Amino acid sequence: MAALRIRLAALLALQLAAAGAHAQASGAASAPAERRNWFDDPFVAATQGLPGCPVPDAPLLTEAAMQREAHYRAERGTSCYQSGRCRLPNAYLYDKEIAPRVVQAIQVAGKFADTSVWVEGQRRWVWLKGCVSTPAQAAELERIVRLVDDVEAVIPQLIVGTTMPAGAPVYRLPP
Question: CB–CB of 92/123 below 8 Å?
């Protein structure tokens, strides 16, 4: 009988230890989830000449968001090839080549020293995020980037000046 009590006490102690470990893990899970660039999408500063420009949020996702996005990205990436619009089997395979060429095109133009612009690439689409000094610079940036080989679309998310408009921001900022 004493041996049974000892075993039951040991079992109870193990269950309590396991419950405590689970509670600690649950507490850690309630902390903000880690955000990472799971898909290694290019995100690079092309210019840095306008101080005070709000830095855009990088293409960071939680693991749960990455899992939701994975199927969608596979489908979007391969549909480009299947439709004959891409020579590579997935549109996302172009991005690591496109981003440096976009940065080079912007810098070689020599017209954007007074801007702060970041380039983000996904599936041959290029997002231009940041600040320009004039509306003409925004239009010229978009025009130049459209000319870069393999770029399918350009999404300008640029602010004239350094103040984000009231209401909805032009681009997402870090949390």
Answer: yes
The CA dihedral of 127, 130, 136, 141, to the nearest 10 degrees, is -40
- Set out the domains of the chain in order of their start, with CATH numbers: 43-59+93-160 (3.30.1340.30)
Q: How far apart are CA 76 and CA 92, in angstroms?
A: 9
pLDDT digit string (tens) for 83-120?
999 999 999 999 999 999 999 999 999 999 999 999 99
Q: pLDDT (tens digit, 9 = 90+) per residue, 113-165?
A: 999 999 999 999 999 999 999 999 999 999 999 999 999 999 999 999 999 98
Buried b (16+ CB within 10 A) or exposed e, 69-103: eeeebeebbeebeeeeebeeebbbbbbeebbebbb
Rg (CA), the chain: 24
Any residues with CB less than 8 A from the CB of 63 and at least 6 apart, and which? 33, 34, 36, 38
d(CA 58, CA 44): 9
Round to whole Å and give the CA distance between 36 and 170: 22
Question: Percent helix, strand and coil across the chain, each rounded to 5?
Answer: 45, 20, 35
Provide the residue type at 171 as one letter. Answer: Y
Instruction: Tokens for 152, please give them.
Output: 């399918």
> Hey, what are 116's tokens?
């702060």
